[in-house]
Write a structure and sequence with these properties.
Layout (H helix, E strand, L loop, with lengths): L1 H15 L7 H7 L4 H12 L3 H19 L4 H7 L5 H12 L3 H4 L26 E6 L2 E9 L4 H16 L3 H6 L8 E10 L2 E9 L9 E5 L2 E11 H20 L1 E3 L4 E6 L7 E12 L3
Antiparallel strand pairs: 1-6, 2-4, 2-5, 3-4, 3-8, 6-9, 7-9, 8-9
């Protein structure tokens, strides 16, 4: 459960600095991970991106101040980091549906987004089917697309990447490279450093690397393998969320910060529903 405390401490840092410059690097340092992993984990457990959370919290506090003080709109905009009145108006209206000036009117309807607090809840309404597996190093070959440390941007990039590949010939070409005993295709998020973040669509193989494709070797590791049945996109995201909130805090393991692997069946069409797996690398909790 220690990681939840660290995540909570990072949120406390953000809350204490809503009217100052918020450093993703500092928040990630407090959470003991990279900015990429911090944003990734945050989006899984909260259901929104870190940037959207910060925007909602700033606009919530700005609305409170507009209603309870005589401060000018421009002063509040500057306080919450908006040097451009236009940008502040746009952000405020996106959250509240009305302009900052209109928010000063008694009776105006506004949206209040409370601060997120991470805690252990009694959830467990359904079982998580999993097994622990020791896997040797894995060599993958496939195509990749660069990502950034901005998870909001990545959430747009990856679905578009899958759609473009499924509509062309590359999907079947990648599938044909799979070793004989392999009958699945992988979606893999790989973080090496801030300049090298990629999402791969690939297979496990010993085949030569075709022109235009890439190989990557994932080190031997212990994996929590979660079985999943349902809609690929939505249900896979649900597995990651439940892993962080329901499974990891009580497991005696830590997240190993290796590539996260989505495992889908190889098929000849654009399947969106069926049996899949999520592999998440873990290591024994340090005492």
């Amino acid at each position: 459960m220690e990681w939840l405390k660290k995540l909570g401490a990072a949120i406390d840092y953000i809350e204490d600095n809503l009217d100052k410059e918020i450093s993703y690097e500092e928040a990630a340092r407090i959470a003991c991970c990279s900015p990429y992993y911090f944003q990734r984990i945050f989006s899984y457990v909260s259901g929104i991106s870190l940037s959207e959370y910060i925007r909602r919290r700033k606009m919530t506090q700005a609305a409170f101040e507009l209603q309870r003080t005589d401060s000018k709109v421009i002063d509040i905009a500057l306080k919450y980091g908006y040097s451009s009145p236009t940008a502040f108006h746009r952000a405020f209206q996106n959250v509240h549906g009305i302009t900052p000036a209109a928010a000063k009117t008694m009776g105006s309807v506004l949206q209040a987004y409370p601060a997120i607090r991470f805690s252990i809840e009694i959830i467990g309404e359904s079982a998580m089917t999993y097994h622990i597996a020791e896997k040797p190093s894995l060599r993958i070959v496939g195509i990749r697309i660069p990502m950034s440390e901005n998870m909001e941007e990545n959430l747009r990039i990856v679905p578009d990447f899958w759609n473009s590949i499924l509509q062309g010939n590359q999907f079947l070409e990648i599938c044909s490279l799979a070793d004989q005993e392999q009958n699945h295709i992988l979606g893999i998020s790989i973080y090496e450093n801030p300049q090298k973040i990629y999402y791969y669509i690939a297979v496990i193989t010993n085949a030569a690397v075709p022109l235009g494709m890439y190989e990557y070797k994932i080190p031997a590791a212990t994996w929590a393998v979660f079985e999943n049945s349902g809609n690929f996109k939505e249900d896979v995201q649900s597995v990651f969320r439940r892993f962080y909130l329901e499974w990891l805090p009580f497991s005696g393991y830590q997240y190993a910060k290796l590539p996260d692997i989505e495992v889908y069946p190889i098929c000849n069409g654009q399947a969106i529903y069926g049996n899949s797996e999520v592999w998440i690398a873990i290591k024994k909790e340090e005492t």
